[in-house]
Amino acid sequence: MINVRDQITPGQLAFLVVQTQIGVGLLMLPSQVHTAAQGDAWISVLIAGLLVQFFIVVLWCLGRRFPSLTLYDYLPALLGRYIGKLVHLVYAAYFILVSSYIIINFAKTIRDWVLIETPQWIVIGMMTSVCIYLVRESLRTIARFFVLVFFCNIALIIIVSCAYLHVNFLYILPVGQAGIWKITKGVHETMAALAGYEILLICYPFVKGGSVAKIKAVVFANIFSTLLYAFAVFTSLIVFSPQELKLLPQPLLYMVKALGFKLFERLDLYFLSLWMVVATTSAIGYFFMASKGVANLFRQQSNHRKAVPYTAALVFIIALIIQDPLLIDTIGKILSITGYVFIIGIPFVLLMISVLFNIHEARGRPR
Amino acid sequence: MRTGLILFATCFLAATLLSGCWDQQLLKDIRIVDASGLDLDPEGKLQATSSVLEVSGSQSGNKSLDEIQTGKGNTTRQLRDILDRKISGIYSASKLRVTLMGEALARQGIYPYLDVYYRDPSSALNARIAVVEGTAHDILTFKKPGTKLVGEYFNKLISSAERRTIIPAVNLQLICPPMLDPGDAFALPYISKDTTSPSIYGIALFSGDKMTGTLKSEDSMLYLLMADKLAKTASVTLKINEEGSQNPEKYIAIDIQKLKRKLKVNVQNNRNIKVTLDLKLKIAVVEYAKDHLNDKRNLTQLDKKLSEELTRRAQVITQKMLQAKHDGFGIGRRVMAYYPNTWKKLHWLEDYPKVEFVPKVTVKIVKHGIMN
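^ Those are the sequences you sent over. The predicted structure of the assembly is below.
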């Protein structure tokens, strides 16, 4: 049923999840969480990571009941034909919108920092074409590429570490200054950045091996992403005073911009070049989920490749239309709230239905 | 296969034809500014003085030239436009090395004038920044010794003083967090105009973004030691004896080898803030005409005398800091971190001068060169 060429190992699944999680959020996250949780932002990130682990378990339980089917395949079996189709459609739309949102933010950051004069459609177009190029391939190829570019993350960590030359740990004291309510708000801000693990809903059947190996892979992936985010937020907190952090939308870039060594200056440009790759993989992850959804909308269990051009066209057009910074903000807020519905709400309902009515997969078919 | 080929061709063409077309900045079109000065004139207008480089790719020797341009306006960014009209090429501050501020401007507050540096993505945030006595225009147009470029000259002048722990190692970005933080403050190099050349006078103390005082170079060194910021070397000459057959015998020159600082903030009765600053210095004697540094009694006596002298100086410095409302050791930050409830009740700008400093310097001679 699943093409052998599409199968990936649990290890590759881990990289797939990490790369989908870490994306444009990396740059924006520190200031967003700081606005909500102030000096305790790093605690918010860690709590959010912990919360995501529970969500992952829910997704995994759902996937385990249908070991060779994707979300799109078992939706009709659980919700009935019409509602199933409708939810399917909404999911595909959600993934398309997230892809666009990633690309918009990517283009915006590039415009603000490097290519000031370059028209937006060029940057958006280039990003989209890179996505098309890779998503047209099998899942295995995508996963292998993700493994390859994982090392960009390590390089990013090294660059950010340079900022530890000038830090003031007093900025995070006293721990717990913000209070529980503000920390909770910070958790909410972080959840959107940590999103990406929902790729498990789509990829579960493509992974070789037992279900335990799969959840291990995803849990480890999430631990890595959480720690990387926590590191980024923590570093921003101790480099900038709280008053300055409020003024900076992308503190990570800003802090490395000021660093200069004998041999090279403007570390932010190196950082951006690496981050571009990381952001692209995140977009590719969502692109894959969207294409799969669009393809399955028309024919059950069809390959995602055929749907790629149509999905890409939609993503490109949406990204072009949404240019107003306030609108982008609003969409970001909407996505972070609806994210709960799509990532945990619906899967949880599906799991309940599946358990209560004892619907699970038997010999490749939902029963 | 065919679609792949088309895609490849498109990408290839796009990459070669489109890369950087809009955002390229050719060196032949721009004029690099390596030093700029900002002043307030008596009427309150802003005056900018920039040293603009002439990068000529000519074969006839590496003769780099710079010219000084000035203009008057209201904001830093506006002045860029004004100067842009005066020079041949596009004004580019992306390789700025040094920004100098006139004292009058520094006392008014510097943040509004620096905003464009923090906002522009291509600006050089690692440019050094200093305050000058009088106006920056005078210093920049001063006939400098040697043939160095203006920006390079001031950059070297400042960086060598940084190595000797006379001034803090700061740049545009490093001063920003303390500038905006209510519980912290920064100090900038202070350059004065000698008769023959510009020289480092010491540091300018800031409170918020306004300059409020100065410390001369010997004091600024001790200030930096108290702030736990020993750079490569630090040396100072102190008067230690009243008697002596010749004048140099009254003095001792020491080199600070190792520094251990303990800073403790105590809040009593929820209001009185007491700061104990314990400074342990290990020093080398580099000049002492009276000699006999192998004698143990002599050494302990010297240690004691030096400790007393430096403690006295430290007290003077902390007094000056309080007068200038300059919270250079980040006392406010510490109160915020360890006594958050007290902090909420304080109005730091008014309460800071009431802080009680108890500095104590302990000196130990560990080296005395290759002679006793």
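The first strand of chain B starts at residue 30 and ends at 40. Chain B touches chain A through 32 residues (CB under 8 Å).

Shout if you want it in another format.
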